Amino acid sequence: MKNLSKFKAFALLLFAVAFVSCDNSDDPTPMPVDNTITGIAVQNPNLKILVQALTKADLATTLKGAGPFTVFAPTDAAFTAFLKTTPYATINDVPKEALTQILLNHVVSGAVKSNALTTGYIKTLAKGNASTTNNLSMYVDLSSGVKLNGVSNVTTADIIASNGVIHVVDAVIGLPTVVTHALANKNFTSLVGALTGAGQPDFVATLSGAGPFTVFAPTNAAFTALNAELAPGGIQSVSAADLTKVLQYHVVSGNVLAATLTEGQMVTPILTPAQKFTIQLASGAKIKDANNRISTIIITDVQCSNGVIHAIDKVLLPVL
């Protein structure tokens, strides 16, 4: 009888152990989910190269941090296309410093959802190559979807992370030159047309160079006004040689930010040094050209990797 009681007790103990064991396997402790920007990128099968790049550049940990950040995230296909334009076979072959700046050019401070974007300039976290403390500018164009710097489209918007937001893009956004920003903004199509017109030097190659350059860039409206000012012949009546002088008159050496301009400052263009123009700051920043015509600076400090652009509302004219 004693042996039977011991057997029953042993059987009950085995049943209890088995029950607890089954209960634990049915309700495992859940693993924490990483919903940071980096964590979401790691989980996305189309962002593998981005994760590799962030890891190499020591930015994976940064994008796990508090933020908030907005990341325009290129797909694997975007990185593959980008690498074909470089001497590098894989993302790991890109020098770390260059890769860091390219990646930071896809990151904006704050959690910016798509409905908060507007057409115009925002600042990325990249510095680029220009010797300045001013961060690179990114041009957002909402005329048809969301296009960035004229080269990259948002394909999937508003992936919400715990420390910001991700917008997936279809192209890597390279560090913008003066030419990049002139091409990206549709308000500069007349300027681009003049710079690339027949009989002009290769302004595109020059303004894509190391620089740095400061460009006082007339808008389309400025060229329209000049056309009326030169009536009846209009801009078409200006010779190619004189148009070259006009365009050169808008380019200054150095990365000259708006805050460094001073009242009465005489500015010397790179290729027309004999003809200066004058800065006037009373009632807003203006320029008085060699013909005493006044132009207002309407957009300042569009930072490029090789200089800076300030938009103006009237074409500057040297004495021809």
What does this structure look like?
There is one protein chain. 30% of the residues lie in helices and 22% in strands. The protein is an alpha+beta fold and 320 residues long. The strands form 2 sheets. A 7-stranded mixed sheet has the order 2-1-7-6-5-4-3. The protein starts with a helix and ends in an 8-residue tail after the last strand. Pfam families: Fasciclin. It comes from Flavobacterium flabelliforme. Residues 34-173, 175-316 form the FAS1 domain. This is Fasciclin domain-containing protein.
What's this, in brief?
The protein has 320 residues and is α+β, with helices and mostly antiparallel strands. The chain has helices at residues 2-26, 37-43, 48-56, 76-83, 96-104, 178-184, 189-195, 203-207, 220-229, 240-248; strands at residues 69-74, 107-109, 120-123, 137-141, 147-148, 152-161, 164-169, 213-218, 251-253, 266-267, 277-280, 286-288, 294-304, 307-312.
